[in-house]
Structure formats: structure tokens, C-alpha cells
Amino acid sequence: MSGTAAPSEPVLILGGGLMGLAVAHQLARNGRSVEVLSRRRSEAAGFVAAGMLAPHAEGLSGELLRLGQASLEQAPAWVEQIQADSGLRCGLRPCGIVVPFASTAERDAYPTAAWGSALDRAGLAQEVPGIGPGWQAGLLFAQDGQIDNRRRLMRALERACVELGVRFQEGVEVLELLRSEGALSGVRVRDAAADVRTLQAAEAVLCCGAWSAQLLPELPVFPVKGQMLSLQGPREALQRVIFGPGTYLVPREDGLLVVGATSEHEAGFTEGLTPFGQRQLQAGIEALLPEASQWPPMERWWGFRPCTPDEGPLLGASAIPGLWLAAGHHRNGVLLAAITAELLSLCLAGKEGSAEQHSLLDAFRWDRFSN
Ligand SMILES: Cc1cc2nc3c(=O)[nH]c(=O)nc-3n(C[C@H](O)[C@H](O)[C@H](O)COP(=O)(O)OP(=O)(O)OC[C@H]3O[C@@H](n4cnc5c(N)ncnc54)[C@H](O)[C@@H]3O)c2cc1C
């Protein structure tokens, strides 16, 4: 790990979504000068996600579980920093997540079963009053939770960055990475007025989400579209997140119920809602919490997860000296934002870091697939 730029030279953040903001914030906290280049703020998956912090409920395993657990542990302190720097709340709720199953055998075979509390039908009905009749068992992961990314976290991160002097350039698309003698020398960008220009930079962090491979084709990142909707339920109707197969229900503090999500591998970057996707969510609501089918829909939206072949992110050094990677977080980017920001700020500071940090960076190298 070695930073190459003088500490006063701005680091360019390519992409102003969740990772771009989280990394920019941490770099600015470390005293670096930072500039965020953002093509379209509103298309960021950071505004799309359900905000679950769910390494256990998602049934992660191996290195991804380790990364997720490390980030979950850091989440409260990370959120505290953002709230202190921004003066805004992030909507962190350590509310626990319940995963329901059709049988106790399915429950006991779940990859993260050892991390949860086993529930029988009575226990399940106690944790989730009104849960559908098809569920006979459950796992409660009390350590998992959620954050209100769409309405709070993204705005708080932006505000924290601005307060720390981060410069934003919205409507600026990075067209090309420029190199000199193999190392990063800058980027070519097109602004909202269609003017093309060059920005010099010795260091940049690639945070272009699902679009990352458009700038660096060797990155194995591809989009997985997800459709979402929200319902206005009675306040306090649901305390825990319910994470069912294919559909999950995430209750915010004010009774808004965020419902997700389709997982469309064939959709590419096709924008928009589809009747099929919305019916799928409706069927999931009916199966998980029948009474919620009657709650009025508030909003419907979609976005693109940045997926990789093993569904883990690409973190740290790239093949181009001076270009760092924070991409490919697929369906766990909100969960992984805290640890990503920490690891990337370590890389750019050129510090040694702990054995644990080294080992995580090693586990999520961009070129691990070719080994
Ligand atoms: C439906 C859905 C539900 C999800 N639910 C959860 C969840 O519950 N929990 C969880 O942990 N994660 C969840 N995620 C995943 C999480 O949202 C993503 O992993 C995370 O937002 C990725 O962050 P990012 O910064 O890499 O990408 P994004 O947030 O998508 O940001 C990328 C940004 O880069 C910009 N950009 C792209 N190309 C260029 C370019 N050439 N020049 C300039 N800018 C560019 C884009 O405009 C965009 O704003 C969900 C995602 C989806 C889609």
C-alpha cells in the first residue's frame, strides 16, 4: 500500500454515489483535498437500496461474511462521525432482522444459522406479528439492522463532505482514464454543457458502481437491476426487518415500509419499472405480511447493483498506479460502506495498516478471479 500524490494535491473521486461519498468523506477527514466527479447523482444505487445491514440475514459466507461483519461492527462509530460532521441524522436502526423459513430443516441449513437465534412458529409470530401462514420457523439476527440510506444517509454524507471542504462537480462524466508512463495522470471528462476537458490527477478512486467497467474494462463488474416500492404502514406496525426469499420488508421509524427487490440479471441497464417485477414484489408482500397488501403504495423505483462474479467488492489497488478501486459491492454496498471507506483511506494514506486490514484488502483484490 503506497500513496503516490503529495498530500495537498486533490484526489479525484470518480462517481458520487455511496462509495464515492463514503471514501471522499474519510479522505477529507484525514486532511486530503478531494474532488468528486459525478455523472448523475440520482442514478446512484445509494439512493435505491433498502439500507439493510445484513451480513447474517443475507446468509453471506467466507471472506464476504468477514468483511460484512467487520463493517457492521464499525457502522455505529462511522454513522456517529457522519452525523457529527453533517449535523444530520442517518437513520441507523439496530432493529434486528428475521429470516422466515417453510421448515425447521431449511432454517437449520441456512449458512449463517449459527449466528442467529432459532425460532419456531410461535417465536416467529411473536417477533413478527401478522407474518404469513406459510412460515413455520425463523432465525432472528438481532445484530443486523438498517440505515435510512435513501432519505438520510446519502444526504448526510454529502453535507459532511461539503462541511469538510470536498468539492463536487455534478453532471460531469468521466470519459477516459489518462496515463503517463503507465501511471494515472488524469481523466478526460465531459460536463453538462457537453464541453470535453482534461483534469490532471496523480490519484483517483474509481467508484462508478455498476458502470465501473465502462471506464476500466478489465474489471468484472456488471449490473443487476432491482425494483423497489414503499408502503405507508401504521407507525410501529413492524419492528424487525423481514428478509424472505426474494422479498424483504424494511420498516423505517415513521412507518414507511420499504419493499425490495427484484434481482434481474438479464436486464442490463434497461431503465424503468416492469409489471412483472412489481407483481413479484406484491406477491412477496402477500406471502410475508398479508395485512401489508392493504397499505397504500408511496413510491416505486429501480436501480442497478454493481455485481462481480463472486458478489464481493473490488477494493484497493488497480493495475494502474495511482488509481484505486472501491467498486462491485453488489447487494451489500450500504453494509460495506464503512469498511470500504476505512480501507481506501488507508491505501491512499500509504500507511501500513493492521494485519486484518491487509488480509481484507488481499481477499478483495480486483484480479482475484484470474488466480
Ligand atoms: C434494489 C437495490 C437494493 C439494495 N439494497 C441494499 C441493502 O439493503 N443493503 C445493502 O448493503 N446494499 C444494498 N444495495 C446495494 C448498494 O446500493 C450498492 O452496493 C451501493 O450503492 C454501490 O455503491 P457505489 O457507489 O459503488 O454505486 P452507486 O451508488 O450506484 O454510485 C455510482 C455513481 O457513479 C456515477 N458514475 C457512473 N459512471 C460514471 C462516469 N463515467 N463518470 C462520472 N460518474 C459516473 C453514477 O452516476 C452513480 O451516481 C441495493 C442495491 C439495489 C439496486
Describe the structure in your own words.
- There is one protein chain.
- The chain is of the alpha+beta class and 371 residues long.
- The chain has helices spanning 18-29, 62-86, 104-108, 121-127, 149-163, 212-215, 275-288, 333-349, 355-363, and strands at 11-14, 34-38, 52-53, 92-93, 97-101, 117-120, 137-141, 145-147, 167-170, 173-180, 183-190, 196-200, 204-206, 222-232, 241-243, 248-251, 256-260, 297-307, 314-317, 323-327.
- The radius of gyration is 21 Å and the shape is globular.
- Residues 1-7 have low confidence and may be disordered.
Compile the SSE list and pairings.
Blueprint (H helix, E strand, L loop, with lengths): L10 E4 L3 H12 L4 E5 L13 E2 L8 H25 L5 E2 L3 E5 L2 H5 L8 E4 H7 L9 E5 L3 E3 L1 H15 L3 E4 L2 E8 L2 E8 L5 E5 L3 E3 L5 H4 L6 E11 L8 E3 L4 E4 L4 E5 L14 H14 L8 E11 L6 E4 L5 E5 L5 H17 L5 H9 L8
Parallel strand pairs: 1-2, 1-13, 2-9, 5-15, 13-20
Antiparallel strand pairs: 3-8, 4-8, 5-7, 6-7, 10-11, 11-12, 14-17, 14-18, 15-16, 16-17, 19-20
Helix pairs in contact: 1-5, 1-8, 2-5, 2-8
**Global mean pLDDT:** 96
Beta-strand content estimate: 25-35%
**Quaternary organisation of the protein chains:** single chain
Sheet with most strands: strand arrangement: 6-7-5-15-16-17-14-18
Instruction: Count up the helices.
Output: 9
Distinct compounds present: flavin-adenine dinucleotide
Distance between the termini: 20 Å
String of helices and strands: EHEEHEEHEHEEHEEEEEHEEEEHEEEHH
| Tally of strands | 20
**C-alpha Rg (nearest Å):** 21 Å
What fraction, in percent, of the residue positions are helical?
A: 25-40%
The major sheet is characterized as: 8 strands, mixed
Q: What general outline do the C-alpha atoms trace?
A: globular
**Low-confidence runs of at least 5 consecutive residues:** 1-7
Helical/strand content category: alpha+beta
